[in-house]
Amino acid sequence: MNFDGAPGGVRQLEEGQPFAMVHPTVEAMQKAREAEAHEAKNGRPVRTKNLSYHGGSGGIGVETSPKIYLVLWGSQWDNHDPSGEAAILESFLSNVGGSSWQATVTQYCQGVASGAVFCNGAGTAAGNQMNSFVNSNSWYDNGSAAPTHPSQSQLAAEAVRAAQHFGNLTAGSNASVQYVIATATGNNASGFGTSYCAWHSSTSSTDGNVAYTNLPYMTDAGASCGANFNGLGPNAGITIVEGHEMAETITDQFPSTGWLDSNGQEIGDKCAWISSGQGASADVTLTNGVSFPVQSLWSNAFNGDAGGCVLSY
Which end of the chain has the least Cβ crowding within 10 Å, N or C? Predict the structure, then answer.
């Protein structure tokens, strides 16, 4: 399930670990779009395919009532956050739920047949409720240093520790939950900024299946992961990338059993790093009148159900 032609999507990162859904870098998306333009110029247009449902895992394909927890992992965070990423993430996550931007996820659902492209009111829709994140959902896990360059299995273990810290000790309590494991500056997993900007996955545990995101210290990668993208400022990548991962986890909580296209790409991958025209990344007003840079998300319903990238729904 490694789709070599797709810059983002399903990847096997570590032997013995579940699939991860990789967020491509700016350069990877530019190359992919240049290749598509070349194909189109030579009479071989690349057809954009809508997302379809892949059956879910144990009946769970989307997060129907998303709840988000932020873990600032390791003592490396102590008094060392040069870009202020912790505060930016907390503010973004506090205001994104209930927004018209996140509402795009609500057209996707679970409880419909595998292969479905539209829910048409059937099943149970992905959620977009306010207060999916509150400040008490942050955990500075700084009792010791995190690994210098954590592996997927180490990140997965930290997600399970987070579930236990927050008292989510059953499969049911983790059924609509995601844990964002944020690493400190200079302390990111290998491949960050060259092979990916972030990724999300899940891991099995005695507390049920746990969904989590590996969120590196985004400004460490500079322009490769969104610094000053579309003139949106040096910190733009922080919320562009986390918003991408959050929406993908909501619509494909346990990869890759939720909503994906035939290339293994999710709601965020298909619209990553668009710099102009329809669906270009922009500052978007979320709830409480607060604005943040975000990318567009794929909507099957856009353009007469042909699909496309949108900033609201």
Answer: N
